[in-house]
Write a structure and sequence with these properties.
Largest sheet: none
Helix content: over 70%
Radius of gyration: 17 Å
Number of domains: 1
Oligomer: single chain
Structural class: mainly alpha
Order of helices and strands: HHH
């Protein structure tokens, strides 16, 4: 979602579409993150501690941003009683 989008100015259809896109994006990113953690843990066990061990830590701020973004969209849908 763009930062310039104001959720209260979106129509109901646009808001539901935004919610669906945000949910899909969140799920895909979480799947990617879990696979990344599994892969990095595998490399840590087989080759020892290295740079690749810390790669998942880099993505934590992105996950937090996605959680807050998805929460704001879901809150607006709840306020409008669309679900």
């Amino acid at each position: 979602m763009k930062k310039s989008d104001n959720l209260s100015q979106l129509s109901n259809e646009e808001l539901l579409k935004t919610l669906k896109n945000a949910k899909t994006q969140f799920i895909c990113f979480m799947i990617f993150f879990v696979l990344l953690v599994i892969g990095c843990n595998y490399f840590t066990v087989t080759k020892g501690f290295g740079f690749y061990t810390m790669i998942p830590v880099i993505f934590i701020p992105i996950i937090i941003g996605n959680i807050f973004s998805y929460g704001k969209i879901k809150q607006e849908v709840t306020i409008r009683e669309l679900l």
